[in-house]
Amino acid sequence: ELKVEQNPLFLSMQEGKNYTIYCNYSTTSDRLYWYRQDPGKSLESLFVLLSNGAVKQEGRLMASLDTKARLSTLHITAAVHDLSATYFCAVDAGSGTYKYIFGTGTRLKVLA
Amino acid sequence: DSGVTQTPKHLITATGQRVTLRCSPRSGDLSVYWYQQSLDQGLQFLIQYYNGEERAKGNILERFSAQQFPDLHSELNLSSLELGDSALYFCASSPRQMNTEAFFGQGTRLTVV
Prior knowledge:
Number of strands of chain B: 11
Number of strands of chain A: 11
Largest sheet of chain B: 7 strands, mixed
Helix content of chain B: under 10%
Order of helices and strands of chain B: EEEEEEEEEEE
Radius of gyration of chain B: 13 Å
Number of helices of chain A: 0
Shape of chain A: globular
Shape of chain B: globular
Low-confidence stretches of chain A: none
Oligomer: heterodimer
Structural class of chain B: mainly beta
Mean pLDDT of chain A: 92
Low-confidence stretches of chain B: none
Distance between the termini of chain B: 31 Å
Largest interface: A-B, 23 and 26 residues
Strand content of chain B: over 45%
Strand content of chain A: over 45%
Structural class of chain A: mainly beta
Distance between the termini of chain A: 41 Å
Mean pLDDT of chain B: 93
Radius of gyration of chain A: 13 Å
């Protein structure tokens, strides 16, 4: 059974600082997605990573995928308060089902 | 707006009752997924349908069932409701045979009292 773990679970950081969120998964997959969720709201797609070594950047967020290590990272550069949210990674379970298994989520709070 | 529509947005019901949650996927999407999000369990995959057929099952209770209709909308039926079923239920859809993310609806917040 595919398991997806994120760390840290909670992250409180000062504005202007950098930090990385890690997403580890247990079985082979070359498709990984990052989502953002604001409290009580839906999930918003951030990045789609479809191959080993894929790197995507949008604003202060950069995501990468290492399929050999079964690891994805979401790097935050010079955090701002608007980035406060919960971030989820999701791994495609494959076998043609396009079943997305979500990580535990990382609750990010950026302090002014 | 993701293009995925869920109704109702909020639902309050009593223990032992049955409810139906509805989802309309994005135009052209053949796959529909249901997820349950609760504080202690995170985002749990329940079930997936593809073009009317069940394709994958996750941690879905026997009291829960779902179906996808010919027009591709989907319904999640929850019966014999318990307090612990209170959660946010999300529907998501994705296109056929494409390496793309799933697009999520706004969710239905179910409160069982």
